[in-house]
Amino acid sequence: MNDVQLENGFTRIANEILDNIAKLKLSSTQHSIIYVIWRYTYGFNRKEHIISLSFLAKAIDTDKRNIQRELKRLENRQIIRQTLNGQQRIIAFNKNYNQWDKFNGEITNGELTNGEITNSTDGEITNSTDGEITNQERKKENIKENSTSNLINDLFEELWKLYPNKKGKSTVSKKSKQVIYKIGIDKMTTAINNYKQDLQANTWKQAMNGSTFFNSRYEDYFEINHVSEELETTSIYPEL
């Protein structure tokens, strides 16, 4: 980086302007537009200059629609003036700060929009710009998702404590846990108890791994349909 010196160029701006700009509620994009306007007007000792939307968009690193919208808002508040001369857009900063509309629009989280209430904070995309969701809404969705995930895991842990063969816990898939959560603890508890009864009635059986049971085999035990194979059959005919 080169040594920054006034000799390499500077922009003369009256302190009164800086003091009054600091008091305005402006969005970050509006501030950036004003800086660029100052740079290419006062920075070259001129009151106005031809500045295109494309030039501003590149200088501020945003899209032209955003620039056009914010320019109009600044113009409506009489902070800038712009005129179209054919294909050329001539922009000037209005130094008469007494003419500025300091209360045009709605203030949301420290930023001002033109009559639109948003949930934005600095640097975030709002619902009022191109219909995109805000970072705040994304955070809410993440919190909701994390909360549901915790409930799913808590329910699974309770069911795991009830199951007799605690092997393969780490291989129970996330999708299986979600399905189990939708089934509910009552129905799953019934399936586990039915399976335990089946094991007691058929002592030769070994309990399947927990991973096998919880990855779908529980479906076989929602109802008691496993009759003991060790039960003695009673003949209806007398012995001869």
Automatic annotation (TrEMBL):
SUPFAM superfamilies: Winged helix' DNA-binding domain
Pfam families: Phage_rep_O
Residue ranges annotated for the Bacteriophage lambda Replication protein O N-terminal domain, each copy included: 4-100
Taxonomy, superkingdom: Bacteria
Residue segments, region Disordered: 111-130
NCBIfam families per the UniProt record, alphabetical: phage_O_Nterm
UniProt name for this protein: Phage replication O-like protein O
Annotated organism of origin: Sedimentibacter acidaminivorans
